[in-house]
Amino acid sequence: MQLQAKYVVLGLLYKRSMSGYDMKKQFEKYFTYFFDASYGSVYPTLTKLEQDNCIVKHTIIQEDKPNKHEYEITSTGRELFEEYLNSPVLDDSIRADLCVRLFFGEFASKETVLKWMNERIKKNETIVAELQEEYERIKSEMSVTQEITIQIGIDYHRAQADTLRKGLKLLDQDSST
Amino acid sequence: MQLQAKYVVLGLLYKRSMSGYDMKKQFEKYFTYFFDASYGSVYPTLTKLEQDNCIVKHTIIQEDKPNKHEYEITSTGRELFEEYLNSPVLDDSIRADLCVRLFFGEFASKETVLKWMNERIKKNETIVAELQEEYERIKSEMSVTQEITIQIGIDYHRAQADTLRKGLKLLDQDSST
DNA sequence: GCTTACATGTAAAATGTTACATGATTGG
DNA sequence: CCAATCATGTAACATTTTACATGTAAGC
Fold it and tell me: In its keyword annotation, does this UniProt entry include rRNA-binding (chains A, B) (predicted)?
């Protein structure tokens, strides 16, 4: 079984009402390294949860901007989310293209492999810096477990970059023999 | 775009022919932390690659055991895999239930949160030990980039456990104030 | 004048998981 | 005798991505 988008949606609405557009924003900002869902996934999920009476829609008329559909969680929705919180934690499901490529690295040229690794190291450094900045900026408004969440993200990207740097040295030794 | 199973299948066949069953075995053993595919995904992928002339099937008649379908990569298949190796590396796609739960941790009881974290720490310690054992056992037969792959897995699980242990301390301080 | 942000949604296609179906042999 | 390993495959269902469709307003 895999983590379903509907639980993430319900989790967000547990604290405050928001629109599908707002949710996607949240995913991009705070969920980057552990969850993502496209609009084509968010909107149908909202429609389905509404049909199941887990959420109710409120249309907010806005001038200058398109109207907004704000969803509010119902008691049924709260129950469903609480059931989720009491269900067993699922394993992380990861699809890491870089690791797949490295596994087959012997079939690629050395330059290609080095490029993959160097680009990833650089990318991860950027992400670590961004997450750290974000963390400093909002930690006062975050719960302790949310802080841990961000920390897991930071350490994940940092650990991967470290391993890749060590890997570069290994490759260097390998080619010099 | 997401990493497609067909490229992983082609990658395995690039070195030697094997069956769908063998592939699943490989995924479980060496790809655990960065890729997985069920039989219901592997077999249809093989059927489709065969239709596209990327692989050819050889039926091996076995006594005592069910017959085996060994697939061999064709030149078309090799080209497709080489194209993949030269395409841009995709970002990791992660769905981490634990992080989602921690993000919403304030809605769960403290015991529940502690249970989530302690269980994950224990699980990761087991995985690290297994990967390390496996690494020692087969590193002589592995390419350098494959070693890096295993190392990324080890460090990923270790870093997450470390962060969670630090998180437990944070939670402790938090409750004592 | 172009892009970005705001905002929602659908349809087609791909992709995937789970459960089912089958059936022999080996090891505890 | 029961579970696991060997081995393949399908069907139903769930889920998701991508592309399309629409339209305003602000900022550069």
Answer: no
